[in-house]
Amino acid sequence: MNKDELKTDTEQLVQDFLDGDVQAFNRLVMHYQTKIYNLALNYVKSPEEAKDLAQDIFVTVYRSLPKLREKEKFTSWLYQIAINHCRNRYKKLSRRGYFSNISLDDEESFLQIAGDEGPEKLLQRKNTINLVRSTIDSMAEAEKEIILLRDIQELAYEEISDILHIPLGTVKSKLNRARTSLKDRLKKHYQDL
Amino acid sequence: MKCQDCQELFSLYFDGEIDQISKSRVDSHFDICPQCKMEWQAFRNSIDFLRDMPMASVPPNFLAGIHQKLEPRSPWHKVKEFLTGKGEKKWALSTAFAMLVIGFVTASLIQLIPVSQTDRDSKTPSAIQSGQMAENNLSDGQSSPMLAVNDDSKGSQQNFYPGVPLLSEYEGKDAPVMQQFAMIPRPKTEQHIPTVDFVSTGSGHTSSPYLDSPFGSFASQQQIPAIKPDLQITIHSAPRAEQMAIVKQIIQSPLWRAELYDHNTLLLSVPASSYDQLLQICCNEKTSLSPDYARNTRYISLKRFLTVAVKLD
Q: Over 60: is that where the pLDDT of B142 sits?
């Protein structure tokens, strides 16, 4: 399903849900659960926490959807809720020292790399993924957030502008800065990649 | 085009959001600047790495878990989850413990705080003066600070109640002598409500023969325990009629309890709050009080009830 189809389908599902079709909500969840779960995973690292966090996000969506005024902006609205939940949970867990007990090995467990590559290639790919993930984690919170929204979640500039409440020009300049920062950090490891 | 300007357009160039003129300028800059071209390749590779990252698959029962969370829960379930459930468990227990500790400490501190003194008299030494005196004592070579400072002008007695004159000030020659009573506790079983039922029934009894021949017959009816009153009011009015008028006013008042002590003494149990009314009735030029400072309406006793002896001279 391409982006335009997804958008049209989402708008129809939102309308169906508001008309009382509960199954429409289930289909909305199916459309967005992987993206939201992975967004949560980027914040909280642990699959258990990410599952709980992503479920909380959809619970909020279910309860607040009738209040949504611009139905065509559902995706931005969903990500606004998701980002707010993620930030809050991240702060809460940080205060408890939760992240000091999480290691990269724990993170690996949820990455199931599919493919018919040989074991050497597979190992190399796994290392690359770990390196990129740790590089992203080492970035400043604002830079990390904008890169996740654009390059992992593949959201449009306008959507990012709506989600983060910043002007379009600022999105462009911040994104360029964040990507340049990522490039500079990864450059040190290009030999390994 | 400068290298910095070129690199600032990398992101838009990558996303294809760049306008045609800027794109051609960047392309022509790459032809003449191998450094920027190398930076561009690194930029593109890093984003490609990022975009190649696999997405983690959603755990099983994800949707079912959402619906489980959407189900209404009973209040008991919420309490149980708060106390034993995930997430907030540590906070719930530690908060409850902290509240207990804070409550206990606060209660202990409240008991330790002394009752603040009211500024009753201009002679009251201020806290600053006390502090200065304590400091002076320290500077005189005393090793430990004093908790209370004696006022040298009043001898060595400690003035625990600033503003209230010391008893010694009323021990001059002119001071009325307090009648001495032995301290014999009243037996508890003898809850003798005064047989002065006429006190509360109005003026009908005021002409009673008991009052006209003052108290004599009452005094002989029971064995009177000796007690020491807090203060004594002596009525010096010469005509008996005047004395009886005051006594009538006293015993007719519902504010206190009156009891006969002997043939010419009436004992009153006066609530501290109605002490002023008693003074209004019987304090004039023909009465005297012992101790004398009790004539001041600002006389303050720590007792809730004052025992007052009204004596006919």
A: no
